[in-house]
Amino acid sequence: MYIVNYKEREVHEVTVANSQKTTMRWLVGKATGARTYAMRFFEIAPGGIIPLHSHDEEHEIFVLKGSAKVLGGPEGTVAKKDDVVFVPPNEEHGYDNTKGKEPFTFICVIPLLEKE
Amino acid sequence: MYIVNYKEREVHEVTVANSQKTTMRWLVGKATGARTYAMRFFEIAPGGIIPLHSHDEEHEIFVLKGSAKVLGGPEGTVAKKDDVVFVPPNEEHGYDNTKGKEPFTFICVIPLLEKE
To answer: What's the whole-model pTM score?
Structure first.
């Protein structure tokens, strides 16, 4: 086993769907033991956004901090600290923190669909 | 998609390996959309423990609150808030909060090995 603080993982800029002010860290990825699913850490800074997009991977999300408008759900949908978000495969989704005052951070688990 | 506060999920007592003062909630399980992996929420109250045990499922864990002694790793290993813990399949592990003053809570993702 291993134990690591999430801040020790490398920070990557997120560019999917023209995301703004968003970073991601692979907490458990292919290179660090993941077999069929991977755990990532996302942070959308105040003013940031992951615009509406979709893909084959479903999302199992747990919100750690802040709140954001959820795109793709009913108008006015918000996700906030302690919320669980489930996004099925190929369903459009996004997270809008452009009006936020604090970072919106969450854990996002995805399947590793491309087997090596 | 759906969004739900984790506290809305049903609480189950954890009995594996004679665990004490430990509860679990299925955040995303088979009944709520999980396909190949499931997200659960664990809480070990002060004085509680999940003793040493092992199983086929690997664990991808993110610690939300508190700290606990980790069983199965090197002597003195502790997991605390913001730590990631990865436990490979069939490796002995456990979490000891018997000396703790606050709850130890964490997200734990497992593969769904028994396909329906």
So the answer is: 0.96
